[in-house]
Amino acid sequence: MKEKEIIDFLKKNFKSKKAFIGIGDDCAVIEYSKNYYLILTTDVLVENVHFEKGKFTWTQIGKKAMAVNLSDIAAMGGIPEFALVSLGLPESNFKIIKELAEGIKEMCKKYKFEIIGGNLTKSKEIFIDVFMVGIVEKKYLKTRKGTKSGDLIYVTGSLGASQIKKQFNLEPRIFEVREIVKKYKVNSMIDISDGLSSDLIKLCEVNKLGFKLYLENLPVSEEAKKISKDKFEEILHVLNDGEDYEILFTAGREEKIPEKIGKIKITKIGEMTGKREFIGILEDKIIEIKDKGFSHF
Amino acid sequence: MKEKEIIDFLKKNFKSKKAFIGIGDDCAVIEYSKNYYLILTTDVLVENVHFEKGKFTWTQIGKKAMAVNLSDIAAMGGIPEFALVSLGLPESNFKIIKELAEGIKEMCKKYKFEIIGGNLTKSKEIFIDVFMVGIVEKKYLKTRKGTKSGDLIYVTGSLGASQIKKQFNLEPRIFEVREIVKKYKVNSMIDISDGLSSDLIKLCEVNKLGFKLYLENLPVSEEAKKISKDKFEEILHVLNDGEDYEILFTAGREEKIPEKIGKIKITKIGEMTGKREFIGILEDKIIEIKDKGFSHF
What we know:
The first copy, chain A, is an alpha+beta fold. Chain A is built from seven helices and 13 strands. In chain A, strands 6, 7, 8, 9, 10, 11, 12 and 13 form an eight-stranded mixed β-sheet that branches. In chain A, a hairpin with a 4-residue loop joins β1 and β2. In chain A, α2 packs parallel to α3 and α2 runs parallel beside α4. Chains A and B meet through α1, β2, β3, α3 and β4 of A and α1, β2, β3, α3 and β4 of B.
């Protein structure tokens, strides 16, 4: 059974009446006040799955544990407010806890959220599970649903080979997304965590649409360029490597989406289509794109 | 380094300005509306730490994962509303997922909360990490802080040897606590998860007080009676076994706390004292009580 089938089973079994959005988007969304929603998400880092001991510092791992959740908050157009941290450790190791805390504090300061609770448990393998709470103005809430055929597809930053270096120096796109949702009419949004191909196909399935990607336009990261022997290999890295934590969004053709927000590039990479086809165009050739991103199972 | 010292370190490092209550109580508390707070908690079950495969069904484990979090919500006087479930599994196993979901659904129905999100990850050992969100009327919020010297100490249900049977048939005291907070003036509240001795000492430390327990009055569970050879052994089980998930609260001597709420017994077990002493009285003998409950490290 694949991850997608499990999530479909859970969606069917746990329908929410009280939440505005339940299982199936980057965050759950609940009522908060007249003008705001509360948005809730959880993501975990597990030893030997998401990180190996010794390869990165615990400060970097603490930062990443926050970043992957901040990216979910960004994908709804939101602002992070609070987090709870559930930590599993094989033994009481103050060095690890101190270094993790340093990384977490750094992210709290930069993204202006607070740690307000958590849990400490024994576990053979280390895990850092984070529960993050954010807010978003009702008028700025973005979800996976809402895009139309003909909408253009944009992505922040650059993609591919993030596992080499970027994954432990993530800069979740909170500030850039806030700029975008305040100034432009965005129709749908998702964060790229499993890989561009996987996450874009998820977006299509929610909206019952397809896409056409301008493969020559894809923003290839420096790392992906270094490890690729040609343009085609670069494209495969961009499509299928996970852990980019960039934001993909769609907007109507009339929206004047800028090419940069601050220092972060915004690239037009394709368009949504009415047919259920997932294709890319490269030098006039049509290439079928498959869901080859990261899956846990 | 002990669990308590780690939590003290985290409390110092992560002070919250925006939350009403941050790290250090059963739940974090944030502003919600004019009359309500939002309360947030997290608790996890880890394979070979909190359960062993095969000893209990996955449905029971799913129920327990909810119950331990519901108990934290109860300990604030609150009502559960939503939960997110972060699940770690070594492989995609639909049987486990289906049975866990059954247990979770049963608790959702009984305690009227909804699962609105979560996360699925690979991990060598299974873990079920839950983030629960509740609400509580501002006037009914109970915390660990607030009790005074001379207050009487009460506990719901019975205690001891919960690991034998009760721990996978937990009935978190949501309904009973709601009755209590609506009708009586309660000064402080905590849930008993690590053991009566540990959790009562935590309550004392927050309030800079001591306690005197009427050891003959302690509500001994049937299981603790069965495995004890005398009264003294029963008392040790009640004081030091963990996993009871009953609620301890304190109230002024003038409050007419009933002996039962529905079918659940409420027992007066002692009183708070101004001295920093932790003692029990048994047949006119004074016994010093030590923190011998459950600790992960």
